[in-house]
Structures are given as structure tokens and as C-alpha cells.
Amino acid sequence: MFILEKKAEPEQQIWNHIKRHYQGEKVAVVGVQKQLPQTFLRNKQVIFYESLTGKALLEEGERFLNKFAKEYTAFVFYLDSSSEIAEQLVEAGRNLGVRVTVTVEETAA
Fold first, then answer.
1. Cβ neighbours of residue 17 under 8 Å, at least 6 residues apart?
2. Could you tell me the domains of the chain?
3. Residues 55-70: pLDDT tens digits?
4. What SS3 string covers 33-92?
């Protein structure tokens, strides 16, 4: 379970994280519409969902985890969330038996 601070090159940061920690796993990258760094990561055949509105990140994230926990072994939430929300999403994943990474605002990390 990981919480990442968004850096200057988030696409490369996310890809390096997936390679290092989720190799061989079925990973979904989840984010708010129009904010995912898709082109770079799609070339690496990473599965994307732009299903969060950003209005209630915790509730939406937990709903997404509950819906897809059986289909994926790991989730990367590409968000600008607070550390508190990130920790709660990681815990929700732990309770469902899936691995979760959440990006947080630089000032929150």
C-alpha cells in the first residue's frame, strides 16, 4: 500500500511505481475525468478508468474498489487528494484484499 506525492513528471513516476511494485499484476489506474496522463501509460497497456468526479473522492473511490476488487489485484488512484483521504482509500483496499496506491497533493505529503 502506497501514498505517492505527485511530482513534476507524474506519468513516469506512476509507471516506475507500477513496474517496481505491481509487476505481473492486473492494475487499474483510476482518476478524475480529463486528468489522467493517458497517452504515455496507454502505450504501456495500463488499464484506465476516468470514473471519479472529484466531488466526493473517498465515497467514489470506495465504491469503485467495491465494484472492481474481484477483477484487479492493484489500483492506482491518480488524484489530488489529502493524505487523510489517501490513507482511507488504502485502508479500504486492504479490507478488500487488493493493493492500492494513491497520489496526494504535494503540500499534503
1. 2, 4, 76, 101
2. 2-104 (3.40.50.10660)
3. 888 999 999 999 999 9
4. CCCCCHHHHHCCCCEEEEEECCCCHHHHHHHHHHHHCCCCCEEEEEEEECHHHHHHHHHH
CA–CA distance, 25 with 42 (Å, rounded to integer): 16
Degrees (nearest 5) of the Cα angle 14, 107, 17? 15
CA distance 59 to 93: 13
DSSP lists the bridge partners of residue 102 as 3, 77
* pLDDT tens readout for residues 67-105: 999 999 999 998 888 889 999 999 999 999 999 999 887
Percent of residues in the chain assigned helix, strand, coil, to nearest 5: 40, 30, 35
pTM: 0.82
